[in-house]
Amino acid sequence: MDRPLYLVVNVDSDPDPVSEFQDDAVILAKYRRMQEILAAHTGGAAAWTVLTGPMYRRRFYEEPFIGFWRDVVEDGADLVLHPEEDLYGPGPGTAPDSTTYYHTDHMRGVIQDCVEAMTSAGLPLHAYRGGYHGFTPEIGAILKDVGISIELSCAPGIVWPQKAANWNGAPLSAYYMDPEQPARHSGHADNGALFEIPWAWDAKAPGQSRPFVVGENYIINEFSNLTAMKLVWDAVAERAATADALQIVSMVCHTYTMGREEFETRLQGILEHVRESGARFVSPMQAKAIFDDHAAEQGAPFRRAN
Ligand SMILES: [Zn+2]
Question: How far does the centroid of ligand 1 lie from the alpha carbon of residue 9, in Å?
């Protein structure tokens, strides 16, 4: 029997390291390797980010990358708008103790530009994930304006005001977001609310692996280890089992480590562990449909948005 347990794999496609330019062929080879691993382990379901930032505003929104995005969508993935305004930046007018994510007019331009580029390529962006978990109610309002209905920045417990991340007290599983308070669920039926899929958390500590990067309390392939990632997953599975409550969460893995055996093996290990737990891998859009169906069955106030 299926368990009420779902994982969205966030694929962060940033071409790290930031300091070293990497040409398209090198980046695409890593993307292809990640695509292969996901095809084998998740059936292709994933949330593939498409990076934008001051250094690379439209680089990944043009060929040859457009062709690659088309392929992953065909595999069953959804595409995610992913601004890294500070990492591949910083953006104009950003003080050292502030972040571009608070500059709403700047963010509006970025979001509209990327949506326009992908729309003209015939590829919808279904979700959004800010760098360093940065997100504001103002960004949420812009997303709704451009037709993006799913948000993936939430790491429950993380509070980094320097990066516009405030996820203290956020639900541990997917929820419809209160437009004024992103870490709170919308308490009433609101067809316009953003659907948030939080990062899987053990709910023990909001630990960091380095400044502004989460660590072993979350599932982050490059900044944790297999044992720790399995423990986080087991905590999520336990919640589904004991409370018989639907659990929809996400993890993250980065394409820049592809080709390095240690990271490939670790990623395959956690995906296998998740599969063995009886969970299903889903894209953000599939996750939203599952949540809506489940809520309709339970008679909850949330209704399918369309
Ligand atoms: Zn990133």
Answer: 14
User: What tokens does 104 get?
Assistant: 């709403």
Q: What is the pTM of this model?
A: 0.94
Residue 92: predicted pLDDT: 58
Å from CA of 122 to ligand 1 middle: 23
Q: Is the dihedral of CA 40, 280, 194, 267 positive or negative?
A: negative
The CA 4 to ligand 1 mean position distance, Å, reads 29
- CA 178-191-187 angle, to 5 degrees, is 35
Q: Are strands 150-151 and 159-160 parallel, antiparallel or unpaired?
A: unpaired
Q: To which CATH superfamily is domain 5-298 assigned?
A: Glycoside hydrolase/deacetylase (3.20.20.370)
Distance 255 CA to ligand 1 centre (A): 10
State in Å: Cα 303 to ligand 1 middle.
Answer: 32
DSSP E strand boundaries for 62-119: 78-83
Which pLDDT tens digit goes with each residue over 36-68? 999 999 999 999 999 999 889 999 999 999 999
Domain range list for the chain: 5-298
